[in-house]
């Protein structure tokens, strides 16, 4: 593979992400492809093996902030001149104007390659032999896991403890994560000397790629664990107890430390994030730390005043309605809302709404007509009409 091939490779396209993708998006894309294309999952499939090699190569560059920056700068440098075959830059024989010599690009002031020119930039990107063993075998933290749980409205307000069944990767109980059959241990890969990388020189470049013998792990397992097939992890169904704190909001995440995927090479376990979905209540609503309730009332109750029995989540309370209260008025009942983290509790907001009967018996209708005649002089729209006349 030539230097031109390396720089013209689109690592972002290999992983199916955009060039401005975040580190988390790159990681998720790689992990998804790695599961699909791993040689153990595709025995004898040379196409999948080649793709696995390509995405591993791409992830090795894009997952490292420094290497990604150098890779982006190198691509911009060459792409800005129309690529390798034309425009401002051109490799010998590539159609570039003036037959630009690649050697000049990697030297400064006639010195040797690596003396501070672009060779330093690209050398740092592709020559990963030094420190490769530490990179391949260093402890890696396990991935975080996210799952969803649905709770009742009352449980979200008052808090609850619920059980959650989760099927996820966990450290193999038989080999304790080593991947080797009990009584045996993995050995250092002789091909890459445990680095997980094989480095080849190509002109001015030194290229590193995952070792095919150990698949980039730096270790060989001669006798794989029969339970996890050498992976060191296995899928298990476990039951967790999740404490839902009082006042949890719909969509809020609860973190369970150390309950995610197991780490690699002795690294710490990731975390589990439980996203809470709150089922709506048939009567109550929520506005921040306050609960809301619409209370049907009659016109006489608002006109003459009354005392209402109002439901709450923990019983009933009485609320006094003053005479002449308009429909739509909101009455506040302190201490009957959501308990805050500072120990205070929100209120219950009761909206009074006149309920108009769809049908009335003759006696009620006659009484209502008599009231309408008695109050004919009172026009509830008089103030509105006056404002319209002034406008």
Automatic annotation (TrEMBL):
CDD domains: DnaJ, DnaJ_C, DnaJ_zf. CXXCXGXG motif repeats lie at residues 172-179, 189-196, 211-218, 225-232. It is found in: Cytoplasm. Gene3D superfamilies: DnaJ domain (1.10.287.110), Heat shock protein DnaJ, cysteine-rich domain (2.10.230.10), Urease metallochaperone UreE, N-terminal domain (2.60.260.20). A zinc finger (CR-type) spans 159-237. GO terms for biological process: DNA replication; protein refolding; response to heat. Its cofactor is Zn(2+). Zn(2+) 2 binds at residues 189, 192, 211, 214. Residues 10-75 form the J domain. Binds 2 Zn(2+) ions per monomer. Residues 159-237 form the CR-type domain. One of its GO terms (molecular function) is ATP binding. InterPro entries: DnaJ (IPR012724), DnaJ_C (IPR002939), DnaJ_domain (IPR001623), HSP40/DnaJ_pept-bd (IPR008971), HSP_DnaJ_Cys-rich_dom (IPR001305), HSP_DnaJ_Cys-rich_dom_sf (IPR036410), J_dom_sf (IPR036869). It comes from the Bacteria. The keyword Lipid metabolism does not apply. Coiled coil: none annotated. GO terms for cellular component: cytoplasm. Homodimer. PANTHER family: CHAPERONE PROTEIN DNAJ 1 (PTHR43096:SF54), DNAJ HOMOLOG 1, MITOCHONDRIAL-RELATED (PTHR43096). Belongs to the DnaJ family. This is Chaperone protein DnaJ.
